[in-house]
Amino acid sequence: MELPRASWEPVETAGFAVAEGPRLGDESLVIQAVVTTSTTGDAQRADATVVRVGSSLVVISTVLSLTRPEADTVAAFMPAAVAQVESKHPEPVDAVS
Question: Most buried of 11, 23, 37, 54, CB within 10 angstroms?
Fold first, then answer.
């Protein structure tokens, strides 16, 4: 699908797919987005992991500018995030100063 743009900007196309991911919570899935720029042919990928725990949704997503190792690090937080939602006594999250 072609993304909206001004007439002087390069054409960018996006594709979306459901991908394999960790089995977490009651249901989970990973949605991958790939955006390709026509002038360079470069493709950037972003993932979103979505997990349902009861009536709650936990979503962790990466942005297009992350490297693959950085995106993997972000995705690695998902099991801990789901565990917090499932816990009857979640740990408080301290604000970063």
Answer: 37
